């Protein structure tokens, strides 16, 4: 290499040390290794793949594998037109902090900003909303989810046959409900779900569809599930954020003066853990049955099928201060489990015994249960506990 015109200039990797560039501009994952040289942002590998979906406005390159400066790439075009060098210069002039100030200036408080563990759909639509539709630069573009009312059709899974049928849904912040209708001209909704107990969580894996959304609500204090999707990813994510907006409004009314930071984590929640275990009945002599378990906040629900509308049962798990504990292993003389790795949950009233297929499953469930029992109970948790205690 005869001359090195770049020697005095910083390399692209040095720009990662600038404030804001140390984590992905879109999902917050640490140590981004890719960059969009048309938007000027540093992103993780996974989000760089989503930027390829909007290639007309975002062009990505690897920080490690692709050439960024002329000194690394001595091609005539580059030397003449200085093109690759200008990418570097552009990255230096923008960066994640400046891009955030521009593209995220009007993100509504309730809007879901995805984390690295969120599903592809949420991250894809977040990236499109920011850079392609520029929803957070113009507030009028947020109408689909911030209006307080939303009406439309979703594919809903039938409770008995598992077939998805088109159903009309209406979300009304004013009425405090989400409802759906079996017939388009029906007067009475098939179900009315109160926003106060509504939760929505994307479940692409469990439902086997990339846009699959699980909606739960409480009826007579028991959890009910419905499973919906829309072919159009934007529609589905708009529904999700409309539900979050309605929940935010509800919580602001229910807890006046509560800081936003306290309300926002309550808009929607992902499950702590899901998967199969075996369980036995209260006497531990009934034989073990394989069930699908969902740890949702402090409710451990079990289902025959992961997509059942109703749980077969629910167990409340309180905190260690209130005499709940988790132990690895089965009580002595337990018989009939097919799976070898036991877990015993003791509540003030009884013991629940579960068996996992692998040691890894057991470890995963143990740490999920430990996390729940080590968390102090909140005032509203005591009300739920009391309900479970007096349940017929
Ligand atoms: Zn990312």
TrEMBL record:
<dbReference type="InterPro" id="IPR038508">
    <property type="entry name" value="ArfGAP_dom_sf"/>
</dbReference>
<feature type="domain" description="PH">
    <location>
        <begin position="270"/>
        <end position="374"/>
    </location>
</feature>
<dbReference type="GO" id="GO:0008270">
    <property type="term" value="F:zinc ion binding"/>
</dbReference>
<dbReference type="InterPro" id="IPR001849">
    <property type="entry name" value="PH_domain"/>
</dbReference>
<dbReference type="GO" id="GO:1902936">
    <property type="term" value="F:phosphatidylinositol bisphosphate binding"/>
</dbReference>
<keyword id="KW-0862">Zinc</keyword>
<dbReference type="InterPro" id="IPR001164">
    <property type="entry name" value="ArfGAP_dom"/>
</dbReference>
<feature type="domain" description="Arf-GAP">
    <location>
        <begin position="9"/>
        <end position="144"/>
    </location>
</feature>
<dbReference type="InterPro" id="IPR037851">
    <property type="entry name" value="PH2_ADAP"/>
</dbReference>
<keyword id="KW-0677">Repeat</keyword>
<dbReference type="Pfam" id="PF00169">
    <property type="entry name" value="PH"/>
</dbReference>
<dbReference type="InterPro" id="IPR011993">
    <property type="entry name" value="PH-like_dom_sf"/>
</dbReference>
<dbReference type="InterPro" id="IPR037278">
    <property type="entry name" value="ARFGAP/RecO"/>
</dbReference>
<dbReference type="Pfam" id="PF01412">
    <property type="entry name" value="ArfGap"/>
</dbReference>
<keyword id="KW-0479">Metal-binding</keyword>
<feature type="domain" description="PH">
    <location>
        <begin position="147"/>
        <end position="248"/>
    </location>
</feature>
<protein>
    <recommendedName>
        <fullName>ArfGAP with dual PH domains 1</fullName>
    </recommendedName>
</protein>
<keyword id="KW-0343">GTPase activation</keyword>
<dbReference type="GO" id="GO:0005547">
    <property type="term" value="F:phosphatidylinositol-3,4,5-trisphosphate binding"/>
</dbReference>
<dbReference type="GO" id="GO:0005096">
    <property type="term" value="F:GTPase activator activity"/>
</dbReference>
<keyword id="KW-0863">Zinc-finger</keyword>
<dbReference type="GO" id="GO:0005886">
    <property type="term" value="C:plasma membrane"/>
</dbReference>
<dbReference type="GO" id="GO:0005737">
    <property type="term" value="C:cytoplasm"/>
</dbReference>
<dbReference type="InterPro" id="IPR037849">
    <property type="entry name" value="PH1_ADAP"/>
</dbReference>
<dbReference type="InterPro" id="IPR052589">
    <property type="entry name" value="Arf-GAP_dual-PH_domain"/>
</dbReference>
<keyword id="KW-0963">Cytoplasm</keyword>
